[in-house]
Amino acid sequence: MSELSQQTSSKWILKHGAGLEEFRSVCGFRKSLLTAEDEARISISHLRIDDSKEHYHKILEEVYYILQGEGTLVLDGERVEIVPGDAVVIRPGVRHHSEGNMEVLIVCCPPHESSDVFFDD
User: Fold this and answer.
1) Which domain covers residue 50, as residue numbers?
2) Closest to 81 measured CA to CA, from 63, 98, 103
3) Which of 33, 39, 91, 120 is the 20 to 30 A CA-CA neighbour of 17?
4) What percent of the chain is modeled with pLDDT above 70?
């Protein structure tokens, strides 16, 4: 953890998003702003939707907050149209993927762990 990327005290955490590496994830290109290494209760990611694969989580709950663009979330087969300013809570067990050109902020509780990403075969 570099001094430039994060500052903490016992009461707060400041993590700078500038310069964070973007990486390929199940739903697109992600920057992990706050991870389980930073905070035990939540994680926050900035995601550019691209070729999202249907998946689900057994433990974590996600909140998608739409920053830019528009598209569709497919939630257990139901298509939900979304636009900037919308927030969608995705509960554990809900199969989901996204369609469209969007940037979203994703808040997960507990923090996102790749071991809690499942696909139907």
Assistant:
1) 26-116
2) 98
3) 91
4) 96
